[in-house]
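Materials and Methods. Structural model of DUF6604 domain-containing protein. The 393-residue sequence of DUF6604 domain-containing protein from Fusarium oxysporum f. sp. rapae was retrieved and submitted for structure prediction as follows.
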Amino acid sequence: MLSASFLSIYQKYKRDTDIVASWLATTAKQHGYTASLAAPPTACAAANKSAAPSSGRVGRMSQDVSDNVSHIKDEERPLCEEWLQSVGFLAPGKDQEMWVAIVQNWEQFLKATKTKITGSGASRRFVQGPPAKKREAIKGAFWENMDGLEGLSERWPVKARRTINQTAEGPDARPFESLAAIWDLEKMRRYQSMWTRMICFLVWTIDNDRESLEDMGLELDEELEEGIVDISQAVAPGSNFFADDDDPKDAIQGFLTKLITDKSATARKNPLFWWTSILLRSAISDDGEKDFISRGTISMNMLPPDVAIKDRIEAIRHYSKVLILDKAFMGWRTGRPGPEVWAEEIALDLNKVDNEWLNKEDGQRPDDCLDRHTCQSTAWKRVLKHLEQEGCQ
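The predicted structure was written out as tokens:
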């Protein structure tokens, strides 16, 4: 998870019972305790086959998007402003040159990576240059892998899904719920856009002008910069960058995992922290400012314009947890000091779960009380303990 210092920024909001303060405190706290991208655990390959969303989902996304989303609520604005002041980045009236650079680079990025449409009727063609193809490759890799990982998360027992939420939110938290169900597809794609846009923007900037990252207030260390370069090379048209079983999904997962486990994260050094600040700063833009970043007010914006500020933050929180669930299981499998039979027991239990309800248009989530997993075996106790430790890092 992100560092405790990041979490402490939000502690002052806990005294406020206002509902808006509550969601900002909670979601930001969970970003601080943060976790979509991972190849399904090897031990659960069979489980993934039936847990993954139905075929065709990757290409399915309606265009039912409102272009008149309301601006940030009056009661939300001071909370966002105070948060930006607390993290020391992009607070209103400060870092103005950086904000201008961010907006200008974002607009250039959108223009450079958009798909051009030529002709009409039978002669209509969609033309993509290398930047646009990279953008689509990143989005496709994220969607494909995350869809499967969301489905896998529903195979965890209620007790395990409650543990990941309690670690972030406290003892009264309900079990974690994925967005894998087919009726949540639109919401899932909007949430995923908050992550894919960050990755695409970073890759395009690295490819075109690395120094402009510093102009935008982001100071990357060598490891993180190399992570972005790896993603760029992996999604390049015709790339054979990965000679083994790795692919763009692995490069993306590795990069994001580094971000959410950064114990010394700051808004100027951690891309996810930096990006969250951008989303908040954009949301509080005055009418006289161009809110290009988060409300999609120019053509071909990659961010759906109908995602409210609290949902943008919730999206960061949600997929942070998905990553943590995967990291916890994979870390336990490879690092545990126990017999192989434990791993077999966990995999067998996960494989038994029937998640067909995820693909039923008129279905509904099974009641948690129907879960018969007691998690009382030695193997499950060890897994839950490891999951709790991962969440508290």
